[in-house]
Amino acid sequence: MDRPLSAVWAAAQGGVRRRKLQTVGIAVVVALSTATLVFGLGLLAASNSMFDDAFEEARGAHATVFFDSTKTTTGEVAATAQAAGVTAAAGPFQTAALTEALVSGEMPIRGGDLVVAGRAGSGGPMDRLTVTSGRWVRAPGEIVLRGSAFGPVRLGATLTSPGHPPLTIVGFATSITDGANGWVTPGQIGALRPTGLQMLYRFARAADSPQVRQSLSAATAGLPVLSYDSYLTAEQEFEREFNELIPFITVFGVFAMALSVFIIGNVVSGAVIAGFRHIGVMKALGFTPAQVSAVYIVMSVVPALLGCAAGLAAGHLLATGVAESMAAGFELPSVGGPSLLLDAVGGGGVIALVVLAALVPALRAGRLPAARAISAGTVSGRGRGRRVQRWLARTGLPAPVALGLSLPVGRPARTVLTFAGLCVGVTAVTMGFGLYRSVMENATADPEGHTSVSVRVDPAADGRARLSEQQVFALLRAQPGTAHVMSYDNQPVTIPGLPSGFQIETFTGDYGPFLGDNLVRGRWFTRPGELVPSEAFLRLHHLDVGDTVSLQLNGDQTTVRIVGSFAHQDPGRLMLDAASVSGPPRPIERRPISVIVTPGTDPAEYADRLNAAAASDGVVAGVTVPETGHVADEMSMFLLFLLIITTTAAFGVLNSVVLSARERSRDLGVLKAIGMSPRQVILMMVTSMAALGVLGAVIGVPLGVLTHHGVAVLAGELLGSGTPAAWIYVYSWPLLAVPAGAGLLIAVLGAWLPAGWAAATHTAGVLRSE
């Protein structure tokens, strides 16, 4: 038994060494495909397990509840820990809200109030904090902030708030539970004039938002709940970040695997055809059909194993790095991610696909009779494509072009595999261009994305009288080139019966053109009393267009009607007219003002003119540049995947031309002997693939458009943000011309190098055997 296996191994080794180009190609293709697959599977596994693992490790709270300490007592709040359905609880902790908190007297610490809790330690049975830098508070006058240091917000800096004693920042900590933004000692909290009590709960039933609300209502019945935070909000935000990538990675991974199957099948079938004589010799030496088939399967599996190992390592490291980065951004104490078992499953699946791709041509090699194999290996195949060649010769096309167009007909199976690879490549490029446009539409969907110039008013300058909002608007509208002007503000708001953490964005002025075209359903607000929240808000809280909600702001409550929703994954964003809420607006000095200039007006010149004309009024203008940093990250990933797929497709073309040149070496020798120049040989070989590239574009472009539509809709559903029509229908005819030319470009680039090799073939050496 050993000798037949040794013979198979020896023959396979010889084949691997002889066919270096195909061997390296299989290894590279499999490595790229495996890395893509393992990366996607690793992120998918992380999205399913990381948050849950970290939540259990840190003993996170299902709900963080804030009570009004002026309307209830500490004992009454503490008694809720024994309520039915509560499995664990911690607190109550006294809380205080620091308004207009500044660090080093200059930098606002956050947009709204800074909620500080009095807490003795960072550990405990619930909400175990992780001190990331510095230390925990030990004495009055110290504070630990949530998050990490940035700019002047650093260890040793002083935090001040009007009417409160200064606090020194001694540490930074992370928490998986929403709630407090800082912690002081229980003895310090009294000096901050606490007005609330914080309680942390874990419930027996907390699988979704309605269950959390029901469990919380049962535990706190009769007590004055100010607001609460649900762990589901943090979980949804975490999963949203991962889900942004999963659809794109999955589709690109499928494309890469499909290309691998096509190319590996093409390589092995080509090796069988080009190795007819070798097959005949093996059979003449006594190799059985099973051994011959095994030789060609082993010739594919050996480089595939090497490529798979490299791809597993690269994909695992890439997925782990991305998972760790995202976990740090969400303050998670532990990291899940790809496992060795998952790597083994992914690698095993890739190798299984390689074996299946190689099986059919390998079985064909085993069934080939020895006499036919030896004779077939000495001459070129005859008869195939002759009718097409004669028809093309009568069309009057140049001979190299006519011959090139007829070459694919001679090997229909190989042509189909090469053509399928080109179609996949064009489909991927088309989808990639569409995703780029969709991501850019997403990045510029907010009002900032439609703003040409941002304006602010200097609050203090030489004792000048402060301008009112109406005066600022009148000043801007009087400037040449002004099309639209509006101001907006962000304020925290509470909604009775729902978790806290909402931010209302109130607009005044001519705000319609700033709101964009990212509506998922309904319409934008046009008057006071109308609300447009994010689509994620509606889905999380099971609300719909036409429902009403009550907003509590500055001690007042107002009811507004939902008239639409915009695409955004943040469930805490609410937009409405500023007149919808009561109370005086913040001073114009603290509210950004946005301007859209008329078509043809340069924003930079407009800002310079405004600064010169309104300097005495304290008006300062600057050009608005939308924040697109995350777009660059996503597009880098898209570009990487597109390079993988197009390179793989180009290699498929290269392999096909190499095999065609080897099979037709005699024909090429005859053509050169009768006067065909090397340039004409190159033209003939490139034309054979260019024709497939054009046809691949005809089919691949529509498939790419459909795939983009499906991926865009799927991404919106996974994120819970919805997908506006403007983000789906992003293609125009000029945009489609680029991926349409990609098929031709891939085909030409893939064919050019082997065509040059064929053109350099010496005629005498080829015809010596005749």
TrEMBL record:
Cellular localization per UniProt: Cell membrane
Molecular functions per Gene Ontology: transmembrane transporter activity
UniProt domain ABC3 transporter permease C-terminal: residue ranges: 251-368, 640-755
UniProt keyword Cell cycle present: no
Domain called MacB-like periplasmic core: residue spans: 415-612
Signal peptide residues on this chain, from the entry's feature table: none
Domain of life from the UniProt record: Bacteria
Membrane topology (UniProt): Multi-pass membrane protein
Transmembrane segments: 21-46, 245-273, 294-319, 339-363, 391-410, 416-436, 638-661, 681-703, 710-730, 736-760
Protein name: ABC transporter permease
Organism from which the protein derives: Nonomuraea turkmeniaca
